[in-house]
Amino acid sequence: MTTTFENFLNKFNEQQWLGVLTSVLPEIHEVDRNAAQIWFRFYPLELFRYLQTAENKEKAIQQFVMQGEYELKNQIDSSHRFLYGHRFWKETKDAINKHAENFEGANADLAHEIRRIAKAAAVAAKTDANLTVGITMVGLMTLVQVGFDAFKQSAGTVSIDAKTKNQSPQKIVEERAKDDSQGIFGFLKTIDKQWTVNYIDDTDSGKFRLMNDEEIASGAARDQSKNWVERDFRRGEGVIPVECRSAACGTCWVGVLGGAEKLSDVAPRERKQMKIFGYQQGEEAKPLMRLACQAKANGAVSIVIPPWNGVFGKKIYGGIADVTLEPATTSAAKLREAISTAMTDE
Ligand code: FES
To answer: What is the span of the domain harbouring residue 149?
Structure first.
């Protein structure tokens, strides 16, 4: 049985949630402003609702060529570990539970409810509310997608990166986009400049190097420091899952936590393909959501790697003409038929 609070939260569609997120964005500390926006793009409500109500969910998942961990019910405590506010997850979850149990609902306003819960979580965690607004929104959307019982029952485990554990939010913001020193003759260097990419995913974090103006996915593939495929079967080539390397499959999407302005502008092909995949990129020249096989860096950046990928834009958001996708590699060619079906199936 759904609670009154769930019924209230369920009234809002994805666009409305994103609208509320935009309206509370100035109240979110800079350290989590991009992260909260990225998280909402990683777990789109309309896709969740489509799958929930699909007559044949398994078939829909196949049609959308979805692979990896796309369901929040399996990652209630971990999907948000790239938010600074993740460290206040226990307090935030408790505040949401308490709020849900006491909610009466008359004339409630979503932004107002978010602020109240974030304040209660901040008091319990002895921190500022601007550090709990982002994680509160993430917590509420998690509740919407997993249901109150599962939400309440999760352990509330927090897993913080050792490196960032004792860093201030401001320091983390600075580190995310701090360019590497190129040595005393750095000003003479052009193509041989190198940049650091900091990455975080659902279980790990680390860094790899890029040459100036190189696609993020190419640098990621040179990092063979770990058995990537053992951690995630999609990572056959390195840190970031890739398949086609030509903006054709959607495997390599990433969120940019810091340094988005140092990436190349989105080219028309990436723009068009992101819509087809269903990844909400936004219309900016240098948005927070990118394809790692297309975005080239001319400075240090920090990214977050989602645990899944798919092709669902046409069915979920519409407004996309039929296209023929041409995956560039043999291994990607096997996706062609499935993607083509996903594109044309009504
Ligand atoms: S690897 Fe296929 S879209 Fe980037």
So the answer is: 4-162
Whole-model pTM? 0.92
Residue 328 confidence (pLDDT) above 50 = no
Mutate-to-test residue for ligand 1 from 245, 303, 305, highest number of ligand atoms within 8 A of CB = 245
User: In DSSP terms, which residues pair with 205 in a beta bridge?
Assistant: 200
Pocket test for ligand 1, best of 235, 293, 311 (most atoms within 8 A of CB): 293
**Residue 184 C-alpha to ligand 1 middle, in angstroms?**
37
Q: In this structure, are 338 and 189 located in the same domain? A: yes
Q: How far is CA 185 from CA 134, 177, 179, 189, 190, in A?
A: 42, 21, 15, 7, 11
Number of domains within the chain: 2
Pocket of ligand 1 (CB under 6 A): 242-245, 247-252, 291, 293
129 plus 196 within the same structural domain: no
Examine the domain organization and report whether 15 and 88 are in the same domain.
yes
Residues 148 and 189 in one domain: no
Say if CB 285 and CB 265 are below 8 A apart.
Answer: yes
**pLDDT per position as a tens digit, 66-79:** 999 999 999 999 99
Q: Quick: pLDDT tens for 186-243.
A: 655 566 789 999 999 988 899 999 999 999 999 999 999 999 999 999 999 999 999 9
> Which pLDDT band, with edges at 50, 70 and 90, does 179 fall under?
confident
The number of beta carbons lying within 10 Å of the beta carbon of residue 161 is 16
| Same domain, yes or no: 154 and 8 | yes
Q: Using the 3D structure, point to which of 127, 162, 197 is the last residue of a domain.
A: 162
User: Do 153 and 182 reside in the same domain of the chain?
Assistant: no
Read off the amino acid at residue 210.
Answer: L
What is the CB neighbour count within 10 angstroms for residue 22?
10
Distance CA 203, CA 197 (A): 17
Residue 150 sits in the same domain as residue 208 = no
Ligand 1 centre to CA of 244 (Å) is: 5
CATH code of the domain covering residue 316 = 3.10.20.30
In a domain, 167, yes or no: no
Q: Which of 240, 291, 339 to mutate to test the pocket of ligand 1 (most atoms within 8 A of CB)?
A: 291
The minimum-distance atom of ligand 1 relative to the CA of 242 is 1
